[in-house]
Amino acid sequence: MQAGKNYLRLNDQVEVIAGKDKGRVGKVVQVYPDNYKAKVQNVNMVKRHTKPNMQNQQGGIIDMEAPLHVSNLMLICSKCAGPVRVARKILENGSKVRVCKRCGETIEAKA
Ligand SMILES: [Zn+2]
Fold first, then answer.
1. Domain membership flag for residue 6
2. What is the CA(104)–ligand 1 centre distance, in A?
3. What is the 108 CA–ligand 1 centroid distance (Å)?
4. Distance from the alpha carbon of residue 83 to the mean position of ligand 1, in angstroms
């Protein structure tokens, strides 16, 4: 994997490997391919002040995820049951998949 390459996709299971939420595991809920960042469910929460709207008629302060740099995240292999390094493989039909460098298992997000 090239340094800084954003290989994460929506619904990936990842572990946080650096920062205040180190060790937390969560699902990728948003990716930012241009700046190598991703949001992970319930990780790196920040307080946001909001105005009243349809969802939140009171307004006020809500907790929401802030994006993390992908270098702070590692993809989890379900077979290894832990964070692993990822390799890329091109299948016979030309599609690219991510594979676990440890066990060789294909890692694809389950929607
Ligand atoms: Zn594996």
1. no
2. 6
3. 12
4. 8
2-28 pLDDT, tens per residue?
Answer: 444 668 999 999 999 999 999 999 999
Ligand 1 centroid – CA 57 distance (Å): 45
Total domain count, the chain = 1
Distance 74 CA to ligand 1 centre (A): 12
Q: Has residue 1 been placed in a domain?
A: no
Range of the domain at 73: 13-107
pLDDT digits (tens, 9 = 90+) for 36-92: 999 999 999 999 888 888 877 888 888 999 999 999 999 999 999 999 999 999 999
| Other Cβ atoms closer than 10 A to 89 | 11
CATH code of the domain containing 17: 2.30.30.30
Look at residue 43 and tell me if it is in a domain.
yes
Question: What distance in angstroms lies between residue 106's CA and the mean position of ligand 1's atoms?
Answer: 8
Q: Which long-range contacts (CB under 8 A, 24 or more apart) does 39-42 make?
A: 39/65, 39/66, 39/67, 39/68, 40/14, 40/16, 40/65, 40/68, 40/73, 41/65
